[in-house]
């Protein structure tokens, strides 16, 4: 078996060869500043405009509604902080969910220190936000609803169109963090009543360090970075032309292969889930079985620690995660798994496997075969598992 087997595509993806090829001339040949008036700058500006147009077309948006950023975290920060500044006189109440990415949650904590009030909506056992709960939480002073499109850890896809309709009905701005979704499933910002949307290039086989924020025309949020007039005066700083070309190419690629890629990933996902749940006892799937991202598998194994599991999988050439890449240095259990009702000990034993179109059934078999051995090995060293078996044996005798 050829290794490494990469199953951490929710953390980052490999930049596609055609994306790299499209980017290269903008490092060495067409390296002009898009703000310049001479021909070399004009070539760069044209490339930026074409990428913006490609992204807008695949979102159902207008070209002038796409603003390039350094990535999803910046886009999330911009959406929340700039909305708070622009609409703070109208009200200081924001609605979000308990399972958002930390780019949202930490920004909300900062806004609370500035006098804003945040409602963190709970989720059900599958990680779903209730549209009815969103509507019930809206107040006279609510200025923003921010609910992620799909969770980065457990893959649950939220009822975004329903939430968007509720926000529109109550004339409240609606932002969604679509970092895990853009390029994975179809999105139409008009039909879903989305006012702002965040995305990142490196989640769809594009480069790191580039993302965008969609801002619906008429939404009066302010600039996030002060300086020049780039991005129509809303985001200062010389444009990252190679990155913008890269995310544009990656977007075109992702939407052209989406149907075939989704079908393949779901087939492998279901095969992987079935084998794990059938062949490894005391394991459970986290998140909805059906209503989840095509490539996401998140399993909790009782009586083991996720960190040890990852280290031993790495020894077998398998790249995986126990949750969000942004919290990989933390010893705390996943806030997402705690929010769906898992106790701490089960949340600690989680494993996230996220697939790509390059993965194969043969690789899934290799992963499960090794996973079975590793889980058995770790449980054999667990006093908790030993006590559990003794109790089970005692029950059987009685």
Can you walk through the features of this model?
It is built from 13 helices and twelve strands. It has helices spanning 17-23, 25-28, 39-59, 72-87, 102-113, 131-137, 160-169, 241-279, 306-315, 335-339, 344-347, 361-380, 383-397; strands at 5-6, 66-69, 93-97, 117-121, 142-146, 173-177, 196-200, 211-215, 283-285, 296-301, 318-319, 350-354. Strands 2-8-7-6-5-3-4 form a seven-stranded mixed sheet, sandwiched between helices. The chain is globular. The relative contact order is 0.16.
Produce the secondary structure layout:
Layout: E1 5-6, H1 17-23, H2 25-28, H3 39-59, E2 66-69, H4 72-87, E3 93-97, H5 102-113, E4 117-121, H6 131-137, E5 142-146, H7 160-169, E6 173-177, E7 196-200, E8 211-215, H8 241-279, E9 283-285, E10 296-301, H9 306-315, E11 318-319, H10 335-339, H11 344-347, E12 350-354, H12 361-380, H13 383-397
Parallel strand pairs: 1-11, 3-4, 3-5, 5-6, 6-7
Antiparallel strand pairs: 2-8, 7-8, 9-10, 10-12
């Amino acid at each position: 078996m050829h290794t490494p087997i990469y199953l951490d595509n929710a953390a980052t993806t490999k930049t596609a060869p055609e994306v790299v090829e499209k980017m290269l001339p903008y490092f060495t040949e067409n390296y002009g500043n898009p703000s310049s008036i001479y021909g070399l700058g004009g070539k760069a500006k044209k490339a930026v405009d074409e990428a913006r147009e490609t992204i807008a077309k695949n979102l159902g948006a207008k070209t002038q509604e796409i603003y390039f950023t350094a990535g999803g975290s910046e886009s999330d920060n911009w959406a929340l902080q700039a909305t708070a500044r622009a609409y703070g006189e109208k009200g200081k109440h924001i609605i979000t969910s308990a399972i958002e990415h930390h780019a949202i949650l930490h920004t909300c904590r900062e806004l609370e220190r500035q006098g804003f009030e945040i409602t963190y909506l709970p989720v059900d056992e599958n990680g779903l936000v209730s549209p009815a709960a969103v509507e019930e939480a809206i107040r006279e002073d609510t200025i923003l609803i921010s609910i992620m499109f799909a969770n980065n850890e457990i893959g649950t896809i939220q009822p975004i169109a329903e939430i968007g309709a509720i926000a529109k009905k109550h004339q409240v701005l609606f932002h969604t963090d679509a970092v895990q979704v853009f390029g994975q499933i179809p999105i139409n910002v008009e039909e879903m009543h989305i006012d702002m949307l965040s995305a990142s290039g490196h989640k769809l086989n594009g480069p790191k360090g580039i993302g965008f924020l969609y801002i619906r025309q008429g939404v009066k949020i302010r600039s996030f970075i002060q300086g020049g007039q780039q991005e129509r005066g809303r985001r200062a700083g010389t444009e990252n032309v190679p990155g913008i070309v890269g995310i544009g190419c990656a977007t075109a690629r992702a939407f052209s292969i989406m149907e075939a890629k989704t079908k393949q990933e779901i087939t492998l996902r279901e095969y992987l889930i079935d084998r794990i749940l059938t062949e490894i006892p005391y394991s459970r799937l986290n998140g909805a079985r059906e209503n989840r991202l095509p490539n996401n598998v998140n399993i909790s194994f009782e009586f083991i620690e996720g960190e040890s599991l990852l280290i031993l999988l790495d020894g077998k050439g398998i790249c995986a995660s126990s949750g969000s890449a942004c919290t990989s240095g933390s010893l705390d259990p996943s806030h997402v798994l705690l929010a769906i009702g898992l106790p701490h000990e089960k949340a600690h034993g989680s494993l996230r496997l996220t697939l790509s179109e390059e993965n194969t059934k043969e690789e899934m078999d290799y992963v499960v075969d090794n996973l079975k051995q590793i889980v058995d090995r770790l449980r054999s060293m667990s006093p908790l598992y030993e006590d559990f078996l003794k109790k089970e044996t005692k029950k059987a005798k009685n």
